[in-house]
Amino acid sequence: MPADPYFVDVAVRWSDMDAYGHVNNVAFVRLLEDARVYALRDWFGQDRDLIDDGLLVVRQEIDYLAPLTFDYRPARITMGCSRISGASFDIGYAVGRPEGDVTYAVAEVTLVAYDLQRSTPRRLTETERAQLCAIAGDPAPLRSRGTRAPR
Amino acid sequence: MPADPYFVDVAVRWSDMDAYGHVNNVAFVRLLEDARVYALRDWFGQDRDLIDDGLLVVRQEIDYLAPLTFDYRPARITMGCSRISGASFDIGYAVGRPEGDVTYAVAEVTLVAYDLQRSTPRRLTETERAQLCAIAGDPAPLRSRGTRAPR
Amino acid sequence: MPADPYFVDVAVRWSDMDAYGHVNNVAFVRLLEDARVYALRDWFGQDRDLIDDGLLVVRQEIDYLAPLTFDYRPARITMGCSRISGASFDIGYAVGRPEGDVTYAVAEVTLVAYDLQRSTPRRLTETERAQLCAIAGDPAPLRSRGTRAPR
Amino acid sequence: MPADPYFVDVAVRWSDMDAYGHVNNVAFVRLLEDARVYALRDWFGQDRDLIDDGLLVVRQEIDYLAPLTFDYRPARITMGCSRISGASFDIGYAVGRPEGDVTYAVAEVTLVAYDLQRSTPRRLTETERAQLCAIAGDPAPLRSRGTRAPR
What we know:
Chain A is of the alpha+beta class and 151 residues long. Helix content of chain A is 19%, strand content 32%.
């Protein structure tokens, strides 16, 4: 991770909690999407319209580390790009709070640049690659990598 | 996988589609939860109340293989148990349709048996372990295992 | 209501419950949408594609009468058309269960036939009007109509 | 409405859009809930825990006036209390944007103060009534009241 990792604060909804009274495991994945939508605007510019120039999620992996409860505060989603190839890249995520040092989840998502008109993957542009390099980060410390003690 | 793999058909909602007109990546994870809720009733009996006797999702990994569109038909979620330890187990998933041989996604979820009263993991009972053995299956063919050609 | 009112059974998801342990008030509105999607196929035929030939919800009103809990059973949504005009119609809803005589909610939704290409309302066709007449029903017994004792 | 109506800005999620590319009609109702959760903290204090001291939605009515699209900006939900009785009250809503004068929806929600332990409605306290009076507003200009030209 660089000295100042990139993050987005996204709103947690009361309805993200399930009958257990915790933010539901699926709602965590929604928070990742939410953060990504804002991040992609920052990284690739407001002129890029997600609807017209698609990015497809082809893979995601998430480790849940601590229960998260709605308490009016946003979630702070820290993100870094840990891999870039011709048409795809990996984003590592950590879900925390603006204050406090609890990490509630870590995740990794593989995205493919996609030409929605032609229904086919497309190469990342030079500008896109430069932007992704600017937020380069370490691979997410997922349990499947052995980087955390198994629970 | 055994000769007759276990599956649950779950309803896809029109609202599971996003502005791309495809079932959203997060909605896929919801379908997995939905299937799990029905499967746990089958496996562990109706007397087990998910609210009182919790199972926590501690990890999930999903590969998206083909776009899924709402077309009134349910999704067929095939499931098998690929690992059992003292307090946790892995379920492998494949998302298809009742007819047709397209696999839209494969996934693996790690669940921990949890005592919600004491807020602590608990050991799986003998009965639970026997049930999970009865639906034993191979590990999900995830890209991260190298079991599929990378996209 | 006619002798045999029209109904659709739609799946309730465990995640439709909120932290109170009841099906959330917003999830009820989702169940109405879900039922409508299936009903419109029955009424207007499979050749009508909801994406291409839009129907816009311009108004909805819902009274919640009893708490609904996830218990694996679907919700039975009974529907009838209580008003037809040139471009719009009202559908009355009652939310129950396949067995049992509890009504959990009653609702009314006003829909406008919409030409998505031209972004303008369009007249209902003769065939559409005939279909709607075939499922004619009384106005929903909403509290705002004074047809139920106020709570 | 008082000179300075009360409002809350709530985040719209990209996923609130449906396959039509507009914020889904059900997602609008979610935005109302979201605004209410924050408003109740403002009105009744942070010590009141929504989980412990419940407020049940017993009725809601919403008119959709203009399509809303995700564009990174929050929705501005303006709220006023238009009726108070012993155990219940009505909140009127208008859904807009922080800038711009388009009203996308107006709504009215009836809430009942509820004792979750005893599963019974409870009387509003003096403090609660005073707070609600402080944000008193006109009834929502719903179509069913004839206060808008029917569409």
